[in-house]
Every structure is written in structure tokens, then in C-alpha cells.
Design a protein that fits this description.
By secondary structure, the protein is mainly beta. The protein has helices at 105-110, 312-315; strands spanning 21-32, 35-43, 53-59, 66-72, 83-91, 94-104, 131-140, 147-148, 164-177, 180-189, 194-201, 207-213, 223-231, 234-241, 258-265, 270-278, 286-292, 298-303, 320-321, 328-333, 336-341, 349-365, 373-394, 400-405, 410-414, 432-436, 443-450, 453-458, 463-468, 477-496. A hairpin with a 2-residue loop joins strand 5 and strand 6.
Length: 497
């Protein structure tokens, strides 16, 4: 952990990253004694996935984070191959972490006691595969040192309902309602259909199975990282379905993130779905988790990366891999979940440049718009144009672009123009993400660039596109191109430090 990162070229300015090594799912996202805690799936010894630990960072504003010592590591028989994802909760004066203990006999053969990979010769043992996942608890009084509960696991395989795989029973999210503890856990059935399971407890330690929810095989093979909360008079269930089939412009990733809006019945553990949606139309957003802030806002953060993809940072030997999205404030509008950047990011914006009433016909460049870590706020009208394109992090040959096609009311995010392309390992030439957007009306964009990432909030958070982008040229220009006249009502650029 003390080693220095050899290459910081693509390190972010205002997104949480690991100090070194691998990062994936946010865990234990919670408020404890007035401070925000975000844990994360972490392998400190390499920049690819390995036996999972819980990394740990704290913040007062959800933007700038301070790293703390690793909170949990796989050192007990019930979690020896990984301390998998989970949640955090303040219980009186203690911080309780709920997590999945992972046992995998195959991993026993390829990692030694220090979690380092064994040699190929040492990994040839003929062992029968065995995987089991159970739910566990750890506690802390100071928010730094965590001790695992002596009677773990608190939910074992015998408490899994019939038809659910013991290999796919993970990612507990715990909350309280009227003095009762509730837990939702992601799962997969023996016929490879995604579920979530609901449990209840009077003390947060002894749990009873309540009910489950599934929507059938068209909603993926396993529902990872579920989260449930009340918002604007409704209940919202977040989850990450793996291998959900594509539907039109939606679910273009192999693994997706979803929200179900409806009503959860606490007595029976039933969830009545009224509306469903994909959470992010981009490439790199997964396993989101939410908390209620000190000011009463529901804020969500997700892993800014994706499974089954090529990882250029690992191949380039940069010694780190993975980051978190901006925190996003959630609300409901006409039954749909809306995401906006959490307002505290505004405190880090400076050197504002304002351009107004521009008429773009052809290509427009302005050096005042260049930058690698910045916020661009744009409002435009395509009444007199057919195609409008915005290129960011642009060099001579590389850029990540957004193109708007009025004839088909479509926005396309394209990241193919990179000398370090992020390739889908299961689908060839997978470099575009798209969404139907009404381009007969004015369109508003909030674009957040941070060295190697982009987050695009469309029409005040109606849609969001999140993507990583690694440029060999390290370009920082912004270019606008229009086929016909696109009217730019305003274009405001702010640096973010």
C-alpha cells in the first residue's frame, strides 16, 4: 500500500479514486457522527480484480475525500475469498457495516495467504469448485477500526429460500423503518433469473426471511447491489441487473443499472412497480448506492467503470484502476427518477467564462473553452440545423463526442476516437451509446470533464451519460460543429479544482 503510483496521467481532479490498486462497487455509503463514509470494493495489490477488501474514505461534502486505513479484509473462514459489497448504518454510537462473505474454493488455489497470485504451477491443483455467499456484520465505535461480529455469519445459507443459488446471494443493504431493521439482498435463482430478497430483524443481528421480488428472465440473470429508499412519497428500488437484454436505446451495456419506482409494503415485503427506467445511458456506471444527507437530500454515487471491458490503466501499468461518479441528488418528476450533480461541486468551480447568443454553422473553436477538469453548461436550439456535434478532450486525432441527430431525435455518445480504446470483451466495435431525445425543443446539457472521464446530464438530469476516455494525445480542446445553424443560447465554462 505504501508504493508510489508510477503514472498519474489519468488521475482525476474531483472524483474519488483508490490510492493505488483496484476499486469497484461503492459500499457502506453512510453518515456516521456527522461525517460521510464511503467504502469500496478494493484489491490493493494489483490494478485488476482480486480477493476483495473494503477500502475506506471520508468526506464532509461528498466531493473531496480523505483516505483511511482499509476497513475490512478477507481473513475469516466465512469471508476468506472476499469481503463483498454491502452497506453501512449508524446504530446508536456505533457504525455497523453489513457485507457479504465470499467463499470460493477456486480462489483458494490461485491466491496465497497474503492475497498475492500464486504461480501457474501452484495453481494446477484439481479441486472441486465450491462457492458460497453469506451475510456478515462488522462494528466500529470510532469510524476507523472495524471488528467483525463474533457470531458471523448473521444470515447463512439455511436462510436462503428454495430455488435461490447459494453462490449468488450478496450485497446487503440495511435500513430502519419504525424501529424495525430491513435488509434487501441481491440474488439469482437456479434457473438464472434475477431476484432481490427481503429480510427483517428487531435488533439488526437476528434476521428472518420476508419475501422476494423478481420480474422474470427479461430483467437479467442476477440483481446486484440493491438499494431501497423513500423519495417524494414513493419507494425507489435501485439494482444492477447483469445480462439484461437491450430494449431499443436502453440497456446497451451487457450489465446495467435500473430503478423501479412504486410502493413497498413493509408488512408483507411486496413491491408494487409503477415505473421502471435505466439509470445511466453511458458506458461506465454500475452498482450505485445512496444515502440521506445531513440536509435531508437523497444522494447516489456509483462505480465509474464496467465489467467485461478492457482496462487500459492496467495494461499501461499505471498501478491504479477505478473511480466513483459524481454524487447525484435524486428526485422524482412525473414519476421518473431525476439525477442532478450534488450542489457542493459548485464550491470547486472557478474562472467562469460565459458565451451567449452564438450561431454555429460549420466548426466553432474557442481556446477559452479548453480544459481537462471543468463544467460546461450549454443550452442550444436545433430549429435551423440537422446535426450538431460537441467534441471534448480533443486533440489532433482523438476526442469523445456527443452528436445530436434531429431527423431521428437521437443523441449518440462516441468514444471510438482514442489511441487507448476501451474495448468490450464480449461485443466487437462497441463504442457508441444512444438515447432518444426530443430535439424539436431547446436542449440543456451539464457536461463534467475530469481528465479521463465525462458525465453528461441532459435536460436537468432527465438522462445521464457516464464514460471513461483515455487519450494518448492528452488533448483538452472543445469543438462545436453544426450542419445548418445551431443557436447556442448560452455556453458557460467553469474550471473545477
Amino acid at each position: 500500500m505504501a508504493k508510489k503510483i508510477r503514472n498519474k496521467t489519468y488521475r482525476h481532479t474531483y472524483h474519488l479514486m483508490p490510492e493505488c490498486g483496484w476499486m469497484n462497487d461503492p459500499n457502506g455509503f453512510s453518515l456516521f457522527n456527522g461525517e460521510y463514509h464511503l467504502f469500496y470494493q478494493h484489491y490493493p495489490y494489483d490494478s485488476i480484480w482480486g480477493p476483495m477488501h473494503w477500502g475506506h474514505a471520508v468526506s464532509t461534502d461528498l466531493i473531496k475525500w480523505t483516505h483511511k486505513p482499509i476497513a475490512l479484509k478477507p481473513d475469516e473462514d466465512y469471508d476468506r475469498n472476499g469481503v463483498f459489497s454491502g452497506s453501512g448504518l449508524q446504530v446508536e454510537n456505533e457504525h455497523w457495516l453489513y457485507y457479504t462473505g465470499h467463499i470460493d474454493s477456486y480462489l483458494d488455489t490461485v491466491y496465497d495467504e497474503n492475497f498475492k497470485k500464486k504461480s501457474q504451477a501452484d495453481s494446477q491443483g484439481d479441486t472441486s469448485p465450491y462457492i458460497r455467499q453469506v451475510q456478515c456484520l462488522a462494528k466500529s465505535k470510532d469510524g476507523t477500526t472495524y471488528h467483525k461480529y463474533e457470531h458471523n455469519p448473521i444470515i447463512g445459507s439455511e436462510q436462503i429460500p428454495p430455488g435461490i443459488r447459494i453462490e449468488d446471494f450478496r450485497d446487503p443493504k440495511v435500513w430502519q423503518n419504525n424501529g424495525t431493521y430491513y435488509m434487501v439482498v441481491g440474488a439469482k435463482s437456479i434457473d438464472h433469473i434475477g431476484h432481490v430478497l427481503f429480510y427483517t430483524s428487531q435488533d439488526g443481528i437476528a434476521w428472518e426471511y420476508l419475501n422476494d421480488l423478481t420480474l422474470g428472465k427479461e430483467y437479467g440473470t442476477v440483481w446486484e447491489c440493491p438499494d431501497i429508499f423513500e423519495l417524494d412519497g414513493k419507494h425507489v428500488l435501485l439494482f444492477s441487473p447483469q445480462e439484461k437484454p437491450r430494449v431499443g436505446h436502453n440497456f446497451e451495456n451487457i450489465h446495467s443499472t435500473m430503478a423501479l419506482v412504486g410502493q413497498f409494503e413493509y408488512e408483507t415485503g411486496t413491491f408494487a412497480v409503477e415505473f421502471e427506467q435505466e439509470l445511466d445511458q453511458g458506458f461506465d456506471f454500475y452498482a450505485p448506492q445512496s444515502l440521506l444527507t445531513a440536509e435531508g437530500k437523497r444522494v447516489m454515487i456509483g462505480w465509474m467503470n464496467m465489467w467485461d471491458m478492457k482496462y487500459p490503466l492496467h495494461e499501461l501499468r499505471h498501478d491504479w484502476n477505478g473511480s466513483m461518479s459524481l454524487p447525484r441528488e435524486l428526485s422524482l418528476k412525473n414519476g421518473k427518477l431525476i439525477q442532478k450533480p450534488y450542489h457542493t461541486i459548485e464550491s470547486y468551480q472557478k474562472n467562469e467564462v460565459q458565451l451567449r447568443d452564438l450561431r454555429i454553422d460549420g466548426e466553432y473553436n474557442n481556446s477559452s473553452l479548453s480544459g481537462k477538469s471543468q463544467h460546461l453548461n450549454i443550452a442550444f436550439d436545433m430549429t435551423e440545423s440537422n446535426i450538431f456535434k460537441i467534441e471534448c478532450l480533443k486533440g489532433d486525432c482523438e476526442s469523445i463526442s456527443m452528436t445530436f441527430y434531429k431527423n431521428r431525435n437521437e443523441m449518440v455518445l462516441d468514444r471510438r476516437a482514442s489511441n487507448y480504446p476501451i474495448e468490450n470483451l464480449r461485443i466487437c466495435n462497441d463504442y457508441n451509446r444512444s438515447q432518444h431525445i426530443n430535439l424539436t425543443n431547446k436542449v440543456k446539457l451539464d457536461i463534467f470533464l475530469d481528465v479521463s472521464s465525462i458525465e453528461i446530464f441532459v435536460n436537468d438530469g432527465e438522462y445521464v451519460f457516464t464514460s471513461l476516455f483515455f487519450s494518448k494525445e492528452l488533448g483538452d480542446n472543445v469543438a462545436l460543429t453544426s450542419d445548418g445553424v445551431t443557436y447556442i443560447e448560452k455556453l458557460v465554462k467553469s474550471e473545477i479544482c
